Amino acid sequence: MRLVLASASPRRLALLAQIGITPDDIVAADIDETPLKGETPRLLALRLAQAKTDAVKADGAVVLAADTVVAVGRRVLPKAETEEQARSCLALLSGRSHRVLTGVALLAAGKVRTRLAEARVTFKRLSDAEVEAYIASGEWRGKAGGYAIQGLAGRYVTNIVGSYSAIVGLPLYETANLIEGAR
């Protein structure tokens, strides 16, 4: 089975390696990730994962894609691109819980199968100094919700309920089961 990972994320590649899977090819899927009007975070994560499989032309290969969405209620936080966005995300997450939803899609034999992993993450109340130190690190760039749990932001997390690997960007249990089912 030839496996194509529809993501250039080094975190997803490392997570796959953790369960002994090495993709044969990596093709970054370029899609519009704008939420649709009225779309829930859960449906957004699944739609984007599936859209990534559709965007990758892999000539009979199995295509694996994922997308991670950070949400507070029905509000989807952006993949922070500016310091202002990152500060806004951290201010919203400070001292409260939020959901991280990762949709996984696998295209095999012309059929797409999807799974969703949801985790709840609680942040401590962040001081202004902590926010500014995290902003200065630059680690937040391009990260859903403006943080990377596997990096410096891990020190702000007081509780996790659910899959840690899903928070990082690829739920390993769900992914392994999808791949096994395609063999």
How would you characterize the overall build of this protein?
This protein is of the alpha/beta class. It has a single domain (3-182), classed as Alpha-Beta Complex (Maf protein). It is 33% helix and 26% strand. It has six helices and seven strands, in the order E-H-E-H-E-E-H-E-E-H-E-H-H. The protein has helices at residues 10-18, 41-55, 83-93, 128-137, 164-168, 172-182; strands at residues 3-5, 25-26, 62-72, 75-76, 97-108, 111-123, 157-161. Strands 1, 2, 3, 4, 5, 6 and 7 form a seven-stranded mixed β-sheet that branches. The protein is elongated, with a radius of gyration of 16 Å. The model has no long low-confidence stretch (mean pLDDT 95).
SSE blueprint and pairings:
Elements: E1 3-5, H1 10-18, E2 25-26, H2 41-55, E3 62-72, E4 75-76, H3 83-93, E5 97-108, E6 111-123, H4 128-137, E7 157-161, H5 164-168, H6 172-182
Parallel strand pairs: 1-2, 1-3
Antiparallel strand pairs: 3-4, 3-5, 5-6, 6-7
